[in-house]
C-alpha cells in the first residue's frame, strides 16, 4: 500500500460524496441567476476536499487512543501504525493551508477568505464533541450543512432561502445516519464514558430518533422544491429519497446491526449523488423548455 493510498484511507476519501454533492447543488441553484465562473466551481471542489480532509485527519488524530481501545476501530491507520502521528499532523496542516488558499479563487468576493478560519475551527471542533455532549452527531451534521450555505455565499456574496433550506436537509439527514452509525459503539461509548445518543438512550430509542430526523430531512427537501421553484422531476427525487430512507431504516434493527455499513455508505451515497443529478436535470429541463 502506497503512502497516498494510506492517506486516502485515513480520511475515507470516498465519503466526500456525502457533502460535496450538496455544495454543488447549491452552486447550480445559485448559477441560475449568477454568471457561471469556472474558478468558482474549482474553488468549491478544492475547498470541500481540503476542508473535509483536514477535519477527518484531525478526527483520527484526536481519537487515536479511543480507536486503539475499540475492537471495531483498532485497525485504523494510527492505532495500527500505518501512518505516524507526525505525518498526520503535517497532513492536517497542509490541508488546512490549502483550504484557506483555495478561498482566493472566489475573489473579488472576500467572504470565503474571511470565514475560512472560523469554519475550519468549527469543523475541527467536532472531534472533541463526543467527550462532552450526546448531541455530537448534530455537531457533525451542522458542520456538513455549512457546505450548501458556503457554496451559495461564495458565488453570490449573499444568502437566500434555498441554501438555508438545503442546509436543513443536510443537517437532519446527516444527524440521522450518524446516529445509526453510532449504534455500533453504544456499549463501548457507555463503558468509556463517551457521549453519544445510542449510549445514552439505547439502540432502539436512538433508531427512532434517527427516523424522526430523516422525516424532517424529507420535509426540508419538500420545502426546497417549493422555495427554489424546482420542477416535477425534483419532486420525484424527493419521493425517491423518502423511499430510500425508509429502506435504510429497514436494514437496521435493534437486534441486528450487521447491515449498518450498507445503510451508512451505500444508501446515503445514492441519496446525495442522486439528488445532485436530479437537481441538475430538473434545472436544465426547466431552462430548455423556457
From TrEMBL:
A GO cellular-component term linked to this record: plasma membrane
The source's domain of life comes to: Bacteria
Question: What Gene3D superfamilies does this protein map onto?
Answer: UbiA prenyltransferase
Which EC number applies?
Answer: 2.5.1.39
Q: Which cofactor(s) does the record list?
A: Mg(2+)
A GO MF term = 4-hydroxybenzoate polyprenyltransferase activity
Which residues are listed as membrane-spanning?
7-29, 41-62, 83-105, 111-129, 136-155, 161-182, 209-227, 233-252, 264-285
A single GO BP: ubiquinone biosynthetic process
> Where is the protein situated, by its record's location annotation?
Membrane
Keywords from the UniProt entry: Cell inner membrane, Cell membrane, Membrane, Transferase, Transmembrane, Transmembrane helix, Ubiquinone biosynthesis
Entries under Pfam families matching the protein: UbiA
Where does the UniProt entry say this protein principally localizes? membrane
The record gives the membrane topology as: Multi-pass membrane protein
PANTHER family reported for this sequence: 4-HYDROXYBENZOATE POLYPRENYLTRANSFERASE, MITOCHONDRIAL (PTHR11048:SF28), PRENYLTRANSFERASES (PTHR11048)
Give the family per the record: Belongs to the UbiA prenyltransferase family.
By its UniProt entry, which NCBIfam families does this protein fall under?
A: ubiA_other (TIGR01475)
The entry's protein name is 4-hydroxybenzoate polyprenyltransferase
Source organism of this protein record: Caulifigura coniformis
Q: Which gene encodes it?
A: ubiA
Amino acid at each position: 500500500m502506497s503512502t497516498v493510498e494510506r492517506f486516502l484511507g485515513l480520511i475515507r476519501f470516498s465519503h466526500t460524496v456525502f457533502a460535496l454533492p450538496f455544495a454543488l447543488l447549491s452552486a447550480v441553484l445559485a448559477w441560475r441567476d449568477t454568471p457561471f465562473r469556472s474558478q468558482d466551481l474549482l474553488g468549491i471542489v478544492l475547498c470541500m476536499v481540503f476542508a473535509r480532509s483536514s477535519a477527518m485527519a484531525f478526527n483520527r488524530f484526536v481519537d487515536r487512543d479511543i480507536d486503539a481501545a475499540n475492537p471495531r476501530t483498532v485497525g485504523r491507520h494510527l492505532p495500527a501504525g500505518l501512518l505516524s502521528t507526525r505525518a498526520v499532523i503535517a497532513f492536517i496542516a497542509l490541508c488546512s493551508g490549502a483550504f484557506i488558499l483555495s478561498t482566493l479563487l472566489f475573489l473579488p468576493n472576500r467572504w470565503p477568505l474571511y470565514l475560512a478560519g472560523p469554519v475550519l475551527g468549527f469543523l475541527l471542533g467536532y472531534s472533541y464533541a463526543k467527550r462532552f455532549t450526546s448531541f455530537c452527531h448534530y455537531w457533525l451534521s451542522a458542520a456538513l450543512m455549512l457546505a450548501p450555505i458556503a457554496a451559495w455565499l461564495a458565488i453570490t456574496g449573499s444568502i437566500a432561502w434555498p441554501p438555508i433550506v438545503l442546509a436543513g436537509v443536510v443537517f437532519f439527514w446527516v444527524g440521522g445516519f450518524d446516529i445509526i452509525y453510532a449504534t455500533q459503539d453504544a456499549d463501548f461509548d457507555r463503558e468509556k464514558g463517551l457521549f453519544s445518543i445510542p449510549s445514552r438512550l439505547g439502540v432502539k430509542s436512538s433508531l427512532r430518533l434517527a427516523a424522526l430526523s430523516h422525516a424532517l430531512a424529507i420535509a426540508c427537501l419538500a420545502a426546497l422544491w417549493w422555495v427554489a421553484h424546482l420542477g416535477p422531476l425534483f419532486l420525484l427525487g424527493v419521493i425517491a429519497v423518502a423511499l430510500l430512507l425508509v429502506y435504510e431504516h429497514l436494514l437496521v434493527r435493534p437486534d441486528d446491526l450487521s447491515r449498518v455499513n450498507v445503510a451508512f455508505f451505500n444508501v446515503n451515497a445514492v441519496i446525495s449523488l442522486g439528488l445532485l443529478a436530479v437537481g441538475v436535470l430538473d434545472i436544465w429541463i426547466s431552462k430548455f423548455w423556457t
